[in-house]
């Protein structure tokens, strides 16, 4: 029986939950928005799937977020293989600007291009006077870019402060760490998270090696972060669309 399951998992017909170890029919898992029906573990989503599950059908219009305003032109290509996608969209009829980070691309790390994309999304939200919804997942700043990567923390934080009365909603997904959690992600008016998401600055192993002590296994989990008052609410993915629509009607 185990051999049959291994073959089924290898060809993608079955998926094993990393939390409860239950084996689930992949099609059933996808119908449940990639949430384990046994333990409610939230599997990671790429940007395209997140947009599909969150936005109204065919409402997402991608913006040229990877270029500066000086480079903007009608012939600029929207396609960009990066750690974030962004554009205008509707969620249950409510228009907003949306940005979705993608952990599967270099761990969702924030380099110059990602920082520029976030800045452009914020500027566009201010220009059209629509709320900005940011789905964040990242290992932090893209260290390969050195000081230019670190500079994106300052750029995004400064631009966030210049948005004025334009509301911003952050959705923390697993994981959101490092320079992203320490900059624009934590400067939203409303901060919500998916269950079990890890939210923090340094990772658990880095902290333990620094302080030479063991930390509780759940100390960076969304539930613990909520109990400390850092975020406002934990929302199951299956209710995220309804929750965001409700918030967008009031902000």
Look up the CATH topology of the largest domain: 2-enoyl-CoA Hydratase, Chain A, domain 1
- Helix count, per DSSP? 9
Overall 3D geometry? globular
Note the main sheet.
Answer: 7 strands, mixed
Give the CATH H-level superfamily of the largest domain: 2-enoyl-CoA Hydratase, Chain A, domain 1
Low-confidence stretches: 72-79
Task: State the strand order across the main sheet.
Answer: 3-4-5-6-7-8-9
Would you mind describing this structure in some detail?
This protein has 251 residues and is α/β, with parallel strands linked by helices. It has two domains: 1-43, no CATH class; 45-250, 2-enoyl-CoA Hydratase, Chain A, domain 1, CATH 3.90.226. It contains nine helices and nine strands. It has helices spanning 2-10, 26-31, 47-54, 112-128, 146-161, 178-181, 204-211, 222-227, 237-250; strands at residues 14-16, 23-25, 61-62, 84-91, 94-101, 132-138, 168-176, 190-193, 233-234. The strands form two sheets. It has a seven-stranded mixed β-sheet, with helices on both faces. It is globular.
Which helices and strands occur, and which strands form pairs?
Elements: H1 2-10, E1 14-16, E2 23-25, H2 26-31, H3 47-54, E3 61-62, E4 84-91, E5 94-101, H4 112-128, E6 132-138, H5 146-161, E7 168-176, H6 178-181, E8 190-193, H7 204-211, H8 222-227, E9 233-234, H9 237-250
Parallel strand pairs: 5-6, 6-7, 7-8, 8-9
Antiparallel strand pairs: 1-2, 3-4, 4-5
Helix pairs in contact: 4-5
Could you list some keywords that capture this structure?
251 residues, alpha/beta, 2-enoyl-CoA Hydratase, Chain A, domain 1, 2 domains, two-stranded antiparallel sheet, 9 helices, 9 strands, 35% helix, globular
